Amino acid sequence: MGALPRERVTANFPFNCTGVDFTGPFSIKYKNQRKGVCQKIYVSLFICFVTKCVHLELVTELTSEAFVATLKRFFSRRGKCSKLFSDNATNFVGSNQELRKLHGMVKNPDGVLSGYLSSEGIDWKFLPPRAPNFGGLWEAGVKSFKHHLKRVVGNSKLTFEEFLTVTTQIEGILNSRPLVPLTTNIEDFNALTPVHFLIGRPINSIVEPNLFEIPECRLKIWQKLTKMIQIIWRRWSNDYLCNLQQRGKWFFDKNNVRIGDLVIIKEDNMAVCNWPLGRIVELFPGNDNKIRVVGVKTQKGFFKRHISK
């Protein structure tokens, strides 16, 4: 594997070097329209090259004016970036008419878009043609967003406010993923997340009741949105935690867990965003001297758990 680009490894402000990608279209409805009439909407994903922070914006149409408005909202909330990276236009070409429209807007920006970028001093860089793997950073973000949004929302038609709420909460979920332990102190149960670079602390989500077992016909509209977010949390966390565990066939012995490692404790009756972090303080080896059970210390006490939990 080659070395990472300079923008990925150089210390910088959040979102100073940013990758952007589009996903969609999605269908939404408006309350003042007759039943059955839906409108298209798109999601623009911005991801920081250094901190991996994610920012999601809704785009109502694929025009230069709409994209400039999206950039203005992004800059107002996250600060102006100096470099903006995106896929080469050939990566957008496909059978989908919307993708061809997006291809034309990005590859050949009109005076509105090019004038705004030049006036703000933004350097927009494109990846090499037919090399989508160069944009794996934002492609992974789009995959995480679409994978769980489509499986939870499905064919449901949300209003603009409801879709905006779900999108913003998914942004918080993606920015709350643990990267590395903050310290090696065995008494410290905090992990570094992308949101630390934005607000300097974890996101403290409002504790809401578990709605998995309640039929949707008994839920109000905002409770349905809460249930969707809880389902997204469960599915995303399961996929993400599985990716952290290497399941490939082994040919050599690998290091097992060690005392002092920071771990996530899985709680079946608790929202994923509230799962506690703990430090391993005791090991219980089996007959083959492999560690499968550990003692974990958290802020609430001591637990004996299997390493898969």
TrEMBL record:
Start and end residues of each Integrase catalytic domain: 10-202
Membrane spanning stretches: none
GO molecular function: nucleic acid binding
GO biological process, one term: DNA integration
Name of this protein: Integrase catalytic domain-containing protein
